[in-house]
Each structure stands twice: as structure tokens, then as C-alpha cells.
Amino acid sequence: MLSAPARLDAVAHSPAMRGSTYLPDGEIPAARVHELEQQLPALTRGEAEFESAFERYLPVRSTIPVPDRPRTDHNPLNREEYLLHVVRRVAGAS
């Protein structure tokens, strides 16, 4: 059960026992919460409840992927080329 959250970049804190109930505690990136919610019924045979609350912002640890395919249209970063394309499209539409 605890390996699934670890695969989703969760960090476990001290668990607690309340009677016959086990209460794991920890932190998980907000982007991965939905994945954990989807996996929880299978991991616990439908007997778990999940509660989450936003705690704080942290810097992103990964890098933004760079597109690996060439553009198929005009590049908006090349202002002159892009504006010429837009002007032609607007002029042709009227």
C-alpha cells in the first residue's frame, strides 16, 4: 500500500493507529493527487477514505520539456514573419 504513494513522489510521515484503523500521513504533489485517488480503491479493496488539503507552494524540481518537432506554422516569436502571416489571413477573410 505504501509503495504506490512513493511512486507518485509522496513523502510519508509518521503513521497513526486509532483502534483498528491505520492513518497514514504525508505529502504528495498536487499534480499527483488525482492519480492516488484513482488507485486507492484497488489498493484498499474500497475500504479507504482519502482527505487532502493544500499546504504550501514549492519550486518545481523538473525541467520543462523542449518540443522536439519543428513548427508547422509561423513562429509568433519571429514578430515580422508572424504579423505578415496574420495580416494576409485577415485580408483574405474579408
Description:
Strand 2 (16-18) and strand 3 form a beta hairpin. The strands form 2 sheets. A two-stranded antiparallel ribbon has the order 1-4. Strands 2-3 form a two-stranded antiparallel ribbon. It is elongated, with a radius of gyration of 24 Å. It has helices spanning 3-7, 33-44, 79-93; strands spanning 11-12, 16-18, 21-23, 26-27. The protein starts with a helix and ends with a helix. It has a domain at 3-44. The model has no long low-confidence stretch (mean pLDDT 81). With 94 residues, it is α+β, with helices and mostly antiparallel strands.
SSE layout:
Layout: H1 3-7, E1 11-12, E2 16-18, E3 21-23, E4 26-27, H2 33-44, H3 79-93
Antiparallel strand pairs: 1-4, 2-3
